[in-house]
Amino acid sequence: MFRQIIQQFSRQRILVLGDLMLDEFIWGKVSRISPEAPVPVVNVTAESYYPGGAANVARNIREFTSAVHMVGIVGTDPQGNRMLELLGNSGIDTSGVQQEVSATTTVKTRIIARNQQVVRVDRERKAPLTTEQAARSMEYLEQAIGQVDAVVVADYGKGFLSQPLADFICRKARQTGTILAVDPHPHTSLDWSHATAIKPNRAEAFLAAALPLGEPVEPVSCDQALLQAGQRLLDRWQPKSLLITLGEQGMLLLQKDTPPYHTPTCAKTVFDVSGAGDTAIGMFTLALAAGAAPQQAADLANQASGIVVGKLGTATVTPAELLAGLPQ
Question: Which one from 149, 223, 272, 278 is the annotated catalytic residue?
């Protein structure tokens, strides 16, 4: 069954929108401690760049289908140019990406030595869209949403998404019958009522539910605090599916009038969890668009995330890797 679903991935048309970020990796070696401060001295050996944030969701989906459309905003700075180049080279349609002089492209720089992250440096200037920029995005979405099978929203809280834009997206998705999956940001407090699927992680779920974050409980089915947080979010957002990612505990799928469904982690090794949520929302949405039941989509999202955390850096999962990890 899973293989049949994956075979349908290449036919899906997916639109991804949200905060675009450039992930920069500086790779090096550490042989001594600085005489100026008790910190390692990293001798740089290589640098690499990847689309991050919402662009990483698009990049993950692009591994499985050629019809991926990106909506967002970047600056006219060198980082924005690099972002557009990387997306274009990946075969992702960037006609919905605005490049603005007034915008600053968010860059997250990770310094890696001995396969471990030494430090992360963020360069960003959060700024909401202007009235004109929001209008241009809505104009593009007005035509595009009806031409795709699913929309994925990745909110990183950098300013691209606002409540008027969220309301517009939700309304257009309902009008066209398009799947709408959202990876929310709890600090923006945007209302995504009646979306097809919403995917917070554990900490985000507790924060959005206004509950204190409790320690994980085994088995997950007995984690009453988590189940309470999930029920609050089901009542608040009323999605068809609420998928809570739980790190080493896997994922928990909640639906109205349906018993909770827990899928344990498939990860064999964990090198880097950055981007695992992007993989999860991308795979879950692809599977739903391909006709999978929510439980099947959760299993595939969990399988893909278990693969990507075994890689270092902002990574993706290939169809061959996903198929190889499935039960025979």
Answer: 278
